[in-house]
């Protein structure tokens, strides 16, 4: 594997009236179109709550978030079920990233 990796940018956000950060991958300029599109769609989904494929970002309910906070976990994990073939799915983006990183 070469030194290629995704850079990330922190973006202010709020959830339940509490300040937080979204840590989003930057779209790499030198990546193939499939990688660029997949990363861009993930950024869009994280910041707007919806992917261009129609998938919605599912945030854990308030009770689950409060339980996590009580146990000391400050990271909220979300779920997104993209349409099959969407460039943002693990099945599409992960192999594309792996191939891009392996290229010299």
The value of Rg in angstroms is: 15 Å
Which assembly state applies to the chains in this document? single chain
Q: N- to C-terminal separation?
A: 9 Å
Principal-axis shape: globular
Largest sheet descriptor = 2 strands, antiparallel
Can you give the helix content as a percent range? 25-40%
Number of DSSP E strands = 4
Structural class: alpha+beta
Q: Structurally, how many domains make up the residues?
A: 1
Strands in their spatial order, largest beta sheet: 1-2
- Approximately what portion of the residues adopt beta-strand conformation? 15-25%
Low-confidence spans: pLDDT under 50, at least 5 residues? none
Alpha plus pi helix count:
3
Description:
With 104 residues, the protein is an alpha+beta fold. It has one domain. 37% of the residues lie in helices and 19% in strands. It contains 3 helices and 4 strands. The protein has helices at residues 33-48, 62-70, 90-102; strands at residues 8-15, 18-25, 57-58, 79-80. Strands 1-2 form a two-stranded antiparallel ribbon. The protein has a two-stranded antiparallel sheet with strand order 3-4. Helix 1 (33-48) packs across helix 3 (90-102). The protein starts with 7 loop residues before the first strand and ends with a helix. The relative contact order is 0.19. The model has no long low-confidence stretch (mean pLDDT 87).
């Amino acid at each position: 594997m070469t030194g290629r990796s995704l850079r990330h940018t922190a973006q202010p956000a709020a959830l339940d009236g509490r300040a937080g950060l979204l840590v989003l991958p930057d779209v790499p300029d030198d990546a193939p179109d499939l990688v660029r599109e997949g990363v861009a769609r993930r950024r869009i989904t994280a910041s707007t709550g919806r992917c261009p494929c129609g998938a919605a970002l599912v945030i854990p309910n308030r009770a689950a978030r409060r339980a996590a906070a009580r146990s000391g976990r400050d990271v909220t994990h979300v779920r997104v079920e993209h349409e099959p073939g969407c460039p943002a799915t693990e099945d599409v983006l992960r192999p594309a990233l792996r191939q891009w990183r392996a290229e010299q």
